[in-house]
Amino acid sequence: MKIIDKIGSKLDVSYFKKSGHADISSILNWKGVVLLDDRDNKVDLARCYMQELQKLSCGVCTPCMIGTSVASDILEHICNGQAILKDLDRLRNQCDWILSSSKCTVGNMGPLAVTELIDDFKQDFENAIISKEFIPRGNYIAHSTAPCINGCPSKLDIPDWIERVRDGRFEDALESARRSTPLPGILGRTCFHPCQDNCRRANVDGTIQICLIRRFAADSVFYSDIKPKFAIKSNGIKVAIIGSGPAGLSCAYYLRLMGYKPVIFEALPVLGGMMTVGIPKYRLPQEFLDKEIGYTLSTGIDYKLNQRLGTDFTIQDLFEQDFKTVFIAVGAHRGQNIGLPGSDDDLKGFYDGVKFLRDVALGNKIDIGNKVIIEGGGNVAVDCCRTAIRLGCKEVVVVYRRSKEQMPAALYEIDTAVKEGVRFDFLTNPVSIIQENGAVKGVECIRIKLGSIDKSGRRSPIEMPGTNFDMECDSFIMAVGQVPDLDFLKDLPQIKTANRDRIIVADKFTHMTDMPGVFVGGDILTGPLSIVDSNRDGKNAARRMDQYIRTGTFEPTDDCLFEYLFEEIGVYDKKEVIDYTDFPNGNPAAKQVEEPVETRIDNFKEVDKGLTSDDVIYEATRCMRCYFLMLVKFEEES
């Protein structure tokens, strides 16, 4: 049976042809699922899969380290005509030993595909042994993933650096993380950790604190002034990066590692984009941010500050200066205006949430008085309210038109804000700003009830007539979203926009716009993104820019193909029942140290202190090393 017959409706197998491969004939994976074209040699499939599995063994436990080696040798002997029938029983016993006795998921699940082949096609194996015929190696590619890796937008090899932290090799752990991001320490503090939402340990007793483990490794190493170890061979080709946020820094970093000469153009007087002017220092200290950005630049990346696209230079200027490609990652620095009456009246005490955070970060004078009302339900609104507390505001109220459960902000951030003295008024919506003599004096609000599910997947807010009421305040901060500033496109008709001119249109795979050589990523491509999503965009765009410069074409790599395959087939099963002897339940996650509320609300010192050295080692030992292997076999040329 061909694979197309089983999963053709779910998987576009022609996707692999884009990189020059033939049609898929078989897929083997960690679930023991074997999808076969009957013409494929079953013994060769088992050999290739077991040999790839052996590469994943860490060598800590004997069953996996020795068992995969012995099983690979047996399969190689069968394919070379050197085996006897008793070897087939030895092979099956080795697989059972690995499955039952290994200390991590590589062995606990890895051999299932081979055992299924042996059990379902035993006659094929016996015939191969008896005939003594040589079996040639088929055309295949293999790749490993893990639920946490697949859940991470940047595809960080999480089990690898967790293993290094477990062994106390913090510098090695950081080096491993930097293969997939130049910002591992920043992500350790600010990432919304979708990896942890895909951690199989949650099926045992609780997810692993992945971000805090990465943060500890970064903190342990950064202050030792370790320099980059990459051997970079410069090719002298200049590439322009517009914006120094996570997408821009990531793109510049990976282009530099390929040998290019990136130059970053930043409109602000500081580097870092929204990481610097949008994330308060109690979450991301400036010292650490500077250290991480400095490491990235030390690979040989140049930069220019106070250079705004469309004002100080144009894209055409860059091409005339011999930049071969341009990557635009200007971020979403403009607050969204929803047309609230009074918001356009230039009132004293009215602030746009994004600009409010930027002014505080840049040290500009802010006077918000004793009571501030903040409208919004996202992380920007929560950052604004916690910042207002630190500026000395006596009463801080966040009004949100839905319930707490429907807030897009992280629940941890909401609860922390409450601890610090912020009051949340849910199911409440501002309808106008009350003003007097050109200044904010309060906000008229209305009560809300929740209706049916809307297109956002949440229950829709419905105003309740006759429930209007006034709330006095000295300042009002509107934090209902942010959008990129696309004014620089007014003289660039070649570059199209979408979503009411809030994002730039580009090919999702190549990141290139309709203007040849101009690529985009981050907030400007999709709308506001997290740092880890922006890091992914920068890395992917760097690969496409490299292909464009070298060949003028775009072809998906095998990594791209497997990423597509893993996404379509699925990796993490939240309903999986895990019962491993070496991973008993009852070992809950470690908790990080926090600055006491009473000593943190009048300053911007970092609140979350991370894990202690003992806790981080303990937490790393909770990792089940869930590497999953997939092998894709292609049809042979006739």
Q: What are the salient characteristics of this protein?
A:
single chain, alpha/beta, five-stranded parallel beta sheet, 23 helices
Care to describe what's here?
The chain has 638 residues and is of the alpha/beta class. It is built from 23 helices and 24 strands. The strands form 7 sheets. It has a 5-stranded parallel β-sheet. It has a 5-stranded parallel β-sheet with strand order 9-17-10-11-12. Strands 2-1-24-3 form a 4-stranded antiparallel β-sheet, with helices on both faces. The longest helix is centred in the C-terminal third of the chain and has 21 residues, at 531-551. Mean pLDDT is 92; it is low at 1-6.
Layout: helices, strands, pairs:
Blueprint: H1 3-7, E1 24-29, E2 34-35, H2 42-56, H3 62-79, H4 86-101, H5 105-109, H6 112-120, H7 122-131, E3 140-145, H8 147-151, H9 158-166, H10 170-177, H11 184-190, H12 210-222, E4 238-242, H13 246-257, E5 261-265, H14 274-277, H15 286-297, E6 302-304, H16 315-320, E7 323-328, E8 334-335, E9 350-352, H17 353-361, E10 371-375, H18 379-390, E11 395-400, H19 411-419, E12 423-426, E13 428-436, E14 439-453, E15 459-463, E16 469-472, E17 475-478, E18 482-483, E19 497-498, E20 503-504, E21 518-520, H20 523-526, H21 531-551, H22 558-569, E22 593-594, E23 608-610, H23 613-621, E24 628-634
